[in-house]
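Below is how a single chain appears once it has passed through the pipeline. First comes the sequence as given, then the structure the pipeline wrote out for it. We keep one example in the README because the format questions we get most often are answered faster by looking than by reading.
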Amino acid sequence: MPGITYTLTIGSAPALPKVIDAVQAIDIDASIQEASTLRLRLGLPQTITGDWGVLAGDPFRPLVPVGVRIQTGSRVPEALINGYVTHQEVVFGAEPGGTYLDVTGMDATLLMNLQERVTPWPSMPDSAVAATIFGQHNLIPKVQPTIPVLVEPEGTQIQRGTDIRYLRWLARRNGFECYVQPEPLSGLDTGHFEPRSLVGVPEAVISVNLGEDTNVWDFTVRYDMVRPTSAIAATLDVPTKAPQPALAPLSTQVPLGLEPALARVLPPPVVRPTGSGLTRAADLQFATQAIVDRSSWAVIASGSVGPDVGVLRPGGIVNVRGAGRVFNGSYYVTRVQHQIRSDGYLQRFEAERNAVTMTGAELFAAVGGGSTCLSS
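Resulting structure:
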């Protein structure tokens, strides 16, 4: 199993040696569906003055930046999270050495959720709004272009609420993901406002029950068979005053298997969304299609791996083998929980799929690392 090292920064500077020495555990929960979080546990020995270890220096003040990088084996160090301190909890143990400090932080979406705003965005497409808001928070925008929803004099989009809540609402109606994640090498935070990227080389190959090639401790697949749905909506197209339908019988996203999840449900479920507030038929079609695309991610896998596969990241693809014909294939990673301890490194991942059965085009080379058998 490759060795691991990590780097901790506090206030954009390397943590002091006494802080590093006090670290007992680091837990990072990285996700594309909600804010990524960080938790540090530090031991607190009592000092000769009666104070408690690093707590005496008060390094973890409100919203102080805290970052973590990790290096597995000989690979280049990768940024896992840039967080901001939100919470402290000190547990004073009765036994010597039983006192510790838990520090919790959240990614940059925390800063985007501190102030509610009422802001007009006249004649601007959702993508331009997203790029502007990300730029205001010093994030590198990674944005998929969209068309304007309202153009003067028809009306003006009005933001009512915090920046991140508004962006996630815009993303949802476009069928996009909206999240913040550091670029692995530079460590600079990137704001994502884009559909799922479903093509490219997989980050890792997960081998299940394959003897010496097994590289996962546990692996579970959950298939919600009646989750996929089609959708039908109707609206009055304001410019033409004509009724316009919006039909979405199938998902338009690339299926990660031979049989798309919705195509397997006969007869297909149908939902009829209302109250969208959209005045153009084309905009309603986008929103209706987004409902269908989201529903098709009905196959959810989870498992635990070590550093052998490299560092997994939400938003990437992993290929699974050894789970049988139906569940082998490509999965889109949505969540990774990193657990860093003095005695090792564990990654608990969740990944989704919008289809079943292999396509035959999957790559099962050990892209992320070796295929050492893991044992508990």
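The first helix runs from residue 17 to 22.

See the next section for the split statistics.
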